[in-house]
Amino acid sequence: MWYEAGWLHTLAYAESADGINWVRPELDLVPGTNQILPFDPEVKFEDSPLEALQPDSCTFFIDYDAPKEERYKMAHHGPRWAVGGVNGTSADGIHWKIHGLTGPGGDRCSAFYNPFRKKWVFSIRSDFTNKDPYFYETRTRDYFESDSFTEGIEWKFEERKRWLAADIEDESDPYMFSTTCLKGFEDPKTDKNAMPGLYCVDAIGYESIMLGMFEIHRGLNNNDFGDRGVPKITELIPMYSRDGFNFSRPNRKPLIWASRYDGAWDRGYVQSVGGGCIIHGDELWIYYSGFSGDESKARNLTGKNAQELDDFYTGMYCGGATGIAILRRDGFVSMNGNGTLLTRKLEFTDKKTMGINAIGKVKAEILDKNGNLLAVSKEFNGDSTNYTLDFGDFDISTLNCKVIRIKFYVDGKLFAFGFADENGDYGGAHAAGIADI
Predict the structure, then answer these.
(1) The dihedral sign for the CA sequence 398, 401, 402, 403
(2) How far is CA 427 from each of CA 55, 291, 345, 401, rounded to the nearest angstrom?
(3) Alpha helices per DSSP H over 288-419
(4) What does R_g of the chain's alpha carbons equal in angstroms?
(5) For 213-269, what is each residue's pLDDT tens digit?
(6) pLDDT tens for residues 163-192?
(7) Is the Cβ–Cβ distance between 269 and 257 less than 8 Å?
(8) Three-class SS string for 196-245?
(9) CA gap 369, 351 in Å, rounded
(10) CA 270 to chain CA centroid, nearest Å
(11) Residue 168 phi/psi, 5° resolution?
């Protein structure tokens, strides 16, 4: 685990054997600490960009296809708009070599890898002016992609594509507008300072899709939260894509939400992390961060140093922590109830078996491209995230390179299905990796 140790101060490193209990090893970079990228405000950027770049949003990857010396990758972005960030590689995740600067970008930039198109993608904060009234123009995202993580990443403003934004279906939060310090705002739909925004976008290849987290900012600016010493309200809404550029959010309900009450460790400012999730047996482990805030450090306090408190020293950014949410594998969506489901036309190669993730009763019919019946499975009745359907004497491998459709009969919940090779591998992407349990 790589994490910010102290808000916008330094980056540190921890290890775990089970993903729950973490240790902070003493490293050789700063004696007596687990720091890996200490920030020094006295260092000039042109002299040492790694030391001079104040940590703001950093994304780390384990690249299993890279040479050993480049196994670990880091996209490190600071809060200064004109500077952008740096990309680095490491053999151990601790000692880093900087390869070059990215193009300009604001705070909360991030990066991800699209394994289906084999592209490195940079999710860049922007604030584009949008003439379409359906989309909010505050806190938006630009897009840039490269074939290489270390080369061709110094983009120009005009090379970035306008990409994603919050829209009028994203709502501001009444929790914030009920507080005394937030009086005087107009309708959240028309007051720019109160509009929702797209705070960050992280994505990862998972099975056959790009799985993303849309971090929605529920409105208002930093000053309003600093005045109270409470964290901003951001929440994580899942999204998906087939190409890594065009994303869909069929459900606007947060997967991971802010708790919104004093004393909660994740009262607000809930953020996604690079990698998205880990496949852990029958579960997905989703790591994320949250903040508790500290109302005793509100900017409107009277007394010593009250006038010196800016956003970074109020309670708005206090109490940052990392948490974990656990979801059934493939558990983002399911077909529920009693009925049938007919897939679109499918084609695959080198497959031997067909598996399902389901609860209840499921039976499958395999049809050719014209709708003629080829095979019928025995009925499954139970609860399994990876059950191999029994088609009797029918050989699934005879379908390789042929166009087919599947008709499911469901009485319960069907989460997912797939075709596996002789080793039981479905051939999909594995998000941040598969835990050895």
Answers:
(1) positive
(2) 36, 37, 19, 16
(3) none
(4) 24
(5) 999 998 877 877 888 888 999 999 999 999 999 999 988 899 999 999 889 999 999
(6) 999 998 888 877 666 554 444 555 555 566
(7) no
(8) CEEEEEEEEEEECEEEEEEEEECCCCHHHHHCCCCCCCEEEEEEEECCCC
(9) 18
(10) 11
(11) -70, -10
Residue pair 283/332 in contact (Cβ under 8 Å)? The answer is no
* pTM beyond 0.90, yes or no: yes
2-328 maps to which CATH number?
A: 2.115.10
343 is written with which tokens?
A: 């897939």
Residue in the structure block whose two tokens are 């592209």: 119
Query: What is the architecture of the domain spanning 335-430?
Result: Sandwich (2.60)
Q: 171: burial class by Cβ within 10 Å (0-12, 13-18, 19+)?
A: middle
**Rounded to an integer, what distance in angstroms lies between the CA atom of residue 70 and that of residue 150?**
10
Residue ranges per structural domain of the chain:
2-328, 335-430
Torsion of CA 365, 368, 370, 371, to 10 degrees: -10
Backbone angles phi, psi at 193, to 5 degrees: -70, -15
Greatest C-alpha distance within the chain? 82
